[in-house]
Amino acid sequence: MISEYIFDDIINTKFGGKDMSCFIFPRLTDEKQFEHLVADCYRASYPGSQVDEYGRRGQKQYGIDITVQMESRLWCIQCKNYETISVSDIDELLSKCTYYSINSFSKLIIATAASNDTKIVDHLIKVRNAHSVPFDLEYLSWERICNLIENNP
C-alpha cells in the first residue's frame, strides 16, 4: 500500500481506501518523509520491482536517493522537496548525478514537491535530445506524485 509511513491514516480511515480524487494532499515539509513517499509510490506502481533508498545521510550518494530495479532495467530517483524548481536547479542536480559512472541506469527521475512546469520538462527534453546524458530523464512533479497516490490506494 502506498505511503504506509505517511498517508495511511488519511487513506484508510477517512477514505476507506476508496476514491481520493477530491482530496488535496498537503506537501510534506520533511525531506526524508518526501523520499519515503516517493519510494512508496514506486513500490505500489511497480509491484515486483526492487525499490531501495540509496544510502543514508552523510554517505556519498552520487546524486541518487532511490533506486528502482525492474528485471534488467535500473531507474534512479533524485528527490528534492522543493516547492519551486528552476532550470538552473535541474542543471545543478544533473551535474551532481555521477552514479552513472559506477552503475549504468536507463532513467533518472527528478522528483520534487514543485508543481508541473513546462520549462522544466522542455529543458529535460532538450538535455536528453542533445545527448548530454546517457539516460532518459523524467520530471515527477507534486501533481504526478498525488496521481500515483490516488491510483494506488
Give the mean pLDDT: 83
Strand order of the largest sheet: 1-2-3-4-5
Rounded to the nearest angstrom, the distance between the terminal CA atoms is 6 Å
Give the % helix. Answer: 25-40%
Q: How much strand?
A: 15-25%
| Bulk shape | globular
List the total number of helices.
5
Describe the largest sheet: 5 strands, mixed
Order of helices and strands: HHEEEHEHEH
Alpha carbon gyration radius: 15 Å
Low-confidence stretches: 1-7
Number of distinct beta strands: 5
Helix-strand category: alpha/beta
What's this, in brief?
Helices cover 35% and strands 18% of the residues. It is of the alpha/beta class and 153 residues long.
Topology of this protein?
Elements: H1 8-14, H2 31-45, E1 50-53, E2 66-70, E3 73-80, H3 87-96, E4 107-112, H4 118-129, E5 136-140, H5 142-151
Parallel strand pairs: 3-4, 4-5
Antiparallel strand pairs: 1-2, 2-3
Helix pairs in contact: 2-5
Description of the molecule:
It is a single chain. This protein is an alpha/beta fold. The protein has five helices and five strands. Helix 2 (31-45) crosses helix 5.
Tags for this model:
153 residues, disordered N terminus, five-stranded mixed β-sheet, 5 helices, 35% helix
